[in-house]
Design brief:
The chain has 121 residues and is mainly α. It has one domain (4-116). 88% of the residues lie in helices and 0% in strands. It contains 2 helices and no strands. The protein is rod-shaped.
């Protein structure tokens, strides 16, 4: 018959493993969140640089064609709308990440409590 201490020790080791796995998942999730944020910043920078280049070309062509004023205005609104959408998506993603983080931390707390409730003798 297995010793009660050995069983508790094995169970504590299992809880420790589960807790460590949750902590790793949380770290991976935070890295993913950071990477997504950096990608969005890079995308917005690229979008603005492209719009800046387009605007320069349109400014040069404006001498010959007055209808470009409307195009410049429309392009400016498109860029602003894309940036707005990205910021809204980021807000939703941040909210989701916060929920997942809270849930994971609660799960870790519960596992630690269950592990702490195991008998030591």
């Amino acid at each position: 018959m297995p010793d009660k201490n050995d069983i508790s020790s094995e169970q504590r080791a299992e809880y420790k493993s589960k807790i460590m796995r949750k902590e790793r998942d949380l770290e991976d999730f935070q890295k993913l969140r950071k990477s997504l944020g950096q990608s969005d910043v890079s995308y917005i920078d690229t979008l603005n640089a492209g719009y800046g280049n387009l605007r320069e070309l349109q400014e040069r062509d404006r001498r010959w064609d007055r209808t470009l004023d409307k195009e410049i205005s429309l392009d400016s609104r498109k860029v602003a709308e894309v940036e707005k959408i990205i910021h809204e998506q980021n807000a939703r993603v941040e909210e989701y990440f916060a929920q997942v983080k809270k849930q994971t931390l609660n799960e870790i707390d519960e596992l630690e409590k269950e592990r702490g409730d195991l008998p030591w003798d």
